[in-house]
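Could you join me in thinking about how sequence relates to backbone shape in a protein? We need material for that, and I hope you will provide a protein of your own picking. Label the sequence line and the structure token line clearly, so we can match residues to local backbone shapes. Would you write everything just below, so we can both look at the same thing?
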Amino acid sequence: MKTIAVLGGGNLGRALALGWVAAGLAPPSAIRLTRRQVSKLSDLADAGFGVGADNRDAVESSEIVVLAVQPQQLDALLGEIAPALDSGRHRVVSVVSGASIARLRDALGPDVPVVRAMPNTAVSIGESMTCLSAEEGAESALEEAQTLFDAVGRTLVIREEMMVPAAALCACGVAFFLRCIRAASQGGIEIGFHPEEALLLAGQTARGAAALSLKEDTHPEGEIDRVTTPRGCTIAGLNEMEHRGLSSALIKGLIVSARAAEGLYRE
């Protein structure tokens, strides 16, 4: 595996580095992370990762460059690393919401292969859903990016205009589904379980439901029909949740998140 520089050692950057090591894709010594406050990466340094505050130095010692800073920090970062990039050696993967490939090429040069990726923090446990997009001519870089993200979950190559909706459904979606698990565990407490028991029951049940939905030739409604019986407790609960707006709330939340994601990056 090529050496990797993760520029931006925040929550997602850390999760990516840890996920790649856990998957056996690269040893810690092959991954460098940068952050202005390097002290916040001390645990990763102790684990064998390269850490520092010098983005350009990290680029010069790596081959795959992952841009993982906040959108408002991106322009300064691009200006800093552009002189250090070698189009024949480097591949750039951006996980920055809202920043187009065209914008990245403008800053980094027309010959540097660029891939956009939208993973989520489940990369740290190998369960991310990552959407990828690249322009024509960057097929090799796209394949490398797929290798990176297939190691920490599943990938889907999509058109670039769908990357912002992907941020809402995949990246923000982790929080949405976790909130559903939290709500289910709170309901479990109210019906008699201890908090730790309720969380275990809710989390494992959600995991099983997700696994069922990913089976081939399976649709969520088909699996729902398998556990609903006439005058049964499942349909009673489902109908009450729908009366309270469960589905419409999730749908509206995704739409609002997608609109917000559109405005995260401004050149």
Summary: Strands lie at 4-7, 31-34, 50-52, 64-67, 91-94, 114-118, 128-134, 153-157.
